[in-house]
Amino acid sequence: MTLLHALGPLLAVPCLAALLVSVYREQAGRRRVIKPLCSLTFVLAALLATPPGREHLWAYLGLGLSFVGDILLLGEDRRALGGGLAAFLLAHACYLAWVLPGVHWGELPLWTLLLALPLLAAGGWILRAAWPRLGALAAPAVLYFCALSFLTWAALATWLGQAPGDPAAALRGLGLGLFFASDIAVARHRLVVPGFVNKAWGLPTYYLSQHFLALSLASTL
To answer: pLDDT by residue (tens digit) across 151-169?
Structure first.
């Protein structure tokens, strides 16, 4: 990995710091400007890692839809939450199309099935806690966490069970694992217990996850 590859993550650090300050101070106007800039850094990281092309089409679509989801979630109402959920569900569908062709199902060790247990437990816990407030979003939320759990499990199982020495597989596994964790923070903030503490760990986890996914596209790691 070269210094050029690290430019996106390096730019993300001050943007993320400014975003957290704006969230803490409840400066909605600044947040609407800073968050898109912060999200652009993982798109930049992908562009610097490898030029867009058919080989990485699904990865770029996933990152692009994530950027759209970030913009939609700048709103605080249920409509914004629904739009953001839809954008990220489509992003995860793209990530599935990116990750699944690299999974050799017959070669996965049986122990990798255990990796699904903490994902299902965390997803079930947050859905149960949020259920009274989900309303019409209940079915999409269940679908979303099922898709994300499966995607995260597939990436982690491929990395740990098939390619433990592959840096790209490690970045994808870690990236999607952190993505899952960040979505727990979003759901907790929106639907269970709002508070800055959710943002304090959820935002860094989210941007780290997206940068890991972007950097996994680099040909030299």
So the answer is: 999 999 999 988 888 999 9
